[in-house]
Design goal:
This protein has a domain at 95-301: Up-down Bundle (Growth Hormone, Chain: A). α3 packs parallel to α9 (227-235), α4 crosses α5 and α5 runs parallel beside α8. The longest helix is centred in the C-terminal third of the chain and has 41 residues, at 237-277. It is elongated and about 55 Å long. It has 12 helices and no strands. By secondary structure, the protein is mainly alpha-helical. It has helices spanning 10-13, 44-77, 103-121, 124-135, 139-155, 157-166, 169-188, 193-222, 227-235, 237-277, 282-288, 296-301. One of its GO terms (cellular component) is membrane. It is a multi-pass membrane protein. Keywords: Membrane, Transmembrane, Transmembrane helix. This is Monocarboxylate transporter.
Amino acid sequence: MVSITIDGPAEDSGMSVESPNVSSDGNAGHGKFAEPVDSQPSNGGHDVKKDNTMSASVEEHGCLDSSHNLNEDHETWDPTSKEKPEPPHDSEESLNVPEGGYGWVIVLGSFIVHVLMGGLGRSDGLFFLMFRNRFDESATLTAWPLAVVSVLRLGMGPIASAICQRWSVRACCMIGGLLLGLSHILAGFSPNFPVLFASCGFLQGIGRGLLYGPSLILVNMYFDRRRSFATGVAASGVGVGTLLVVPLIQLFFDTFSFTGGFLVLGGVCFNAVLVAMMFRPLSMYYKFKGKKGYNLAVVWLHP
């Protein structure tokens, strides 16, 4: 065989020379080009973009988690939540109305109020005759104070309800008793018909309205199963008042004349203040039983 040796650089000969990095048998060389260099662009840009995308997703996930936590924290104190608050006591008995006990004292007080309301309401004929003889006004004008009393007695319901919500049934009935007694005392000293109209018309009507409705409301709050029976007992006082109070009022005026009769009647009406003191609110009832902080709304709304 003839071997040919070529001197000089490879590029001058015009021949291609295999890279000494890798031999035909797969052994790596030790030259400058020991590691092959890829002519294609590396995936470094793609990897950076992928890393940025992953980082953004992690941050977004973290923001969602933190916002979810904030929402959870917000729901714990959200005042607009429609969920009913849990009762402040663990006992199931604390959710029930008393169904008796001091409730019968409330029924007795409401019965006395209805006795007074029934007696005064059925005495309008007596008052009409006395006003006509005292002031010598027309029948139409004389009937106006009594008509105003009837209107205000039933029309004071919203105001009485607001007073009960703001303070208590006891406070509302005490105000009504004070106005009722004061109206009869002023009526006894009325120098003319306009003063009588203001005292025996407006004041008496407001006093009756603040006494009548709240006395029944408190009975309903103390009873559930026996509510119908308790309400019937309390409302039966109207009939008793018609039977007893009307003759008693006639006796007052026959014995003490116009002024003295109204003074005695005003003193009788002031007893409604003492009756109103018997109207213990449910919150105070549970406080006396050692259940402080009881929510009155739970008792009222409980079926």
